[in-house]
Specification:
The C terminus is likely disordered. By secondary structure, the chain is an all-alpha fold. One of its GO terms (cellular component) is trans-Golgi network.
Length: 244
């Protein structure tokens, strides 16, 4: 074998390994990056009205379910780590939103999880209530998974449910923008990064032969991202017309 050809093959293999490692790191941390500009926007404006905290609810449920799906069907470790990072990122967003809302609150009445008031579900005053809800949901998932782990149907259903929730990621924001007839307070950079990330990860899923649920979820998310960006154009145009 030609020594030069052998060296070239080693270089190609090393480059591919480096590229694969970089793509994996991007998958792990890339999902949380879009929330950096939204976090900064909320800090700057001291206002949370433009951001739907139900995005955090959807992602927390999706990623908790995905972790239990991984226990039943070991797919790429990268996607498991991505879920852990995303859960931490969502708790960070909720902590900031609670702090800002409590600072701006006029009423002294607190809404707690223990009130069991569905009208204030996921609108609680204290960050601890969000932690408690997620802890309870995790324990419930752990018990059910332990009982049904040997069922292939259950494991596949768990994965599909996790990805169904993840596919709904942008829906709370889409609905909030629609109800407000405005995208004020929502970071457009966040949505652009959502779109870029969803395109990247959907491509990643296809190239790595990930379970079908993953790339279907990614495709739905891309469509939702595009719808939110269209809202940005629509509502900004409506605002200009009214001001004009």
């Amino acid at each position: 074998m030609d020594p030069e050809m052998g060296l070239q093959e080693e270089d190609v293999e090393a480059s591919w390994t480096l590229l694969s490692w970089f793509a994996s790191c991007l998958m792990v941390f890339g999902g949380a990056l879009p929330y950096v500009p939204q976090y900064q926007e909320i800090q700057r404006s001291s206002n949370t009205e433009g951001f739907s905290t139900r995005v955090c609810l959807v992602l927390l449920i999706a990623n908790i379910l995905r972790i239990f799906f991984w226990i039943g069907k070991q797919f790429e470790l990268t996607l498991l780590l991505q879920s852990v990072v995303m859960i931490l990122a969502m708790f960070t967003m909720l902590h900031l939103c609670c702090a800002i809302q409590n600072t701006n609150r006029v009423s002294t009445k607190l809404h707690r999880l223990t009130d069991l008031d569905l009208n204030y579900f996921w609108k609680w005053s204290l960050f601890e209530d969000y932690l408690l809800f997620c802890f309870g949901f995790t324990v419930l998932c752990a018990v059910v998974t332990l009982l049904l782990l040997d069922s292939a149907v259950f494991v596949e259903a768990l994965g599909s449910l996790a990805l169904l929730f993840e596919a709904m990621l942008g829906l709370p924001q889409l609905l909030q923008n629609f109800n407000n007839r405005s995208t004020k307070g929502m970071s457009v950079k966040m949505v652009l990064l959502w779109t870029a990330g969803d395109v990247f990860k959907t491509t990643y899923f296809v190239l790595n032969d990930s379970p079908t649920q993953f790339w279907v979820c990614g495709s739905v998310q891309i469509l939702t991202d595009v719808a939110i960006l269209l809202q940005v154009l629509l509502y900004n145009q409506d605002t200009r017309v009214k001001l004009g």
